[in-house]
Amino acid sequence: MTDHDILSDAEREALLQVMHAPQLPPQRVLIVDDDQDARELLSEIFAINGIHCLTAASGSAAFDLLQDNRSIGLMITDLRMADDGLDLIRKVRSSERAALPIIIVSGNAQVRDAIDAMHLSVVDFLLKPINAEHLLKLARRELGMIA
C-alpha cells in the first residue's frame, strides 16, 4: 500500500508543503541590564547552552528590540537601571507583547519591588548572584524547550 492509495493529490501536495515549510527561527532571550559585564555573562551562559540572546543596556532599547524582533520569547531584566526595570515591565504589559514571560534578576531589591513585580505577572524574581542552572531551567521552560 502506498500513500497514493490513501491520500488524494491535494492532500499529498498539502503534506509536501508542510514538510518543506521553513522552520521557525529559534526563540531568543532578551537580556536587559545597564551593567555590560552582567549582560555579557548572562549572554555567554545562554549561548554555551544553545540559547540565542539579544542584549539591551536600557529599558528603551529593550522595548525597541521587542517591537522589532518577534523571535524574542523571554525577557530577563535588571530592576535597578537608569530606565527603571519595573517601568519597562509595565510598558511591555500594556503593549502587544503583554504575554511575554519576564524574569527579574536584581542585585539590589526591596520587598516592595518583589511585590510590585509579582503584580505584573513576572515568572520569577531572582537575586544576584544568580544560580545559573536555575535560571537556565526557568528559561528553557518558558521557551518551551522542556516540559
Structural class, by secondary structure, is alpha/beta
Range of strand content: 15-25%
Q: What coarse outline follows from CA principal-axis ratios?
A: elongated
Q: How would you classify the quaternary structure?
A: single chain
Terminus-to-terminus distance: 37 Å
The profile of the biggest β sheet is: 5 strands, parallel
Gyration radius, rounded:
19 Å
Topology pattern, helix = H, strand = E: HHEHEHEHEHEH
Total discrete domains: 1
Give the integer mean of the pLDDT values. Answer: 87
Known CATH architecture:
3-Layer(aba) Sandwich
Proportion in helices? 40-55%
Descriptive keywords:
147 residues, alpha/beta, Rossmann fold, 5-stranded parallel β-sheet, 7 helices, elongated
What's the gist of this structure?
By secondary structure, the protein is α/β, with parallel strands linked by helices. It is built from seven helices and five strands.
Describe this structure in words.
It is a single chain. By secondary structure, the chain is of the alpha/beta class. The chain has one domain: Response regulator (Rossmann fold, 3-Layer(aba) Sandwich), CATH 3.40.50. It contains 7 helices and 5 strands, in the order ααβαβαβαβαβα. A 5-stranded parallel sheet has the order 2-1-3-4-5, with helices on both faces. The longest helix has 13 residues. The chain is elongated, with a radius of gyration of 19 Å. The two termini are 37 Å apart.
